[in-house]
Known about the structure:
Strand content: under 5%
Distance between the termini: 94 Å
Amino acid sequence: MNTFSPDSYFDALESHFNQLAVAVAAGDIEVLPALSEQVQKLSINLAEVWQQWQRQGLNDAVVTARIKALAEGFQVVRANLLRRAMLVEQTLNLVVPATMDPTYAGGGAYGAGPKSSGRLSPMAV
């Protein structure tokens, strides 16, 4: 794959990345693993040839702008994945409450009872 131009690498990476972003936004969990793997492989291939391009002087402002756009896009996809994970976790806690850890350990149905302070309360005679 070293004979491809920077544009062809970026075109392929952006195409697969856009498909991944749409799948994450739509919640299409069946295609996420395959698309994620393709984006990862393309990113690794791009990183391998990046140094060659720099030595050849192919690192221009357009390439830098495309990299920044991809980086920002990855942040958006990551945020969407975190939102989806939180929804799944909340749903799981609703359906199976035993999976949720209590906030205050040792509490009963209405929380922990009063704790003794070690002080003796005055007695009225």
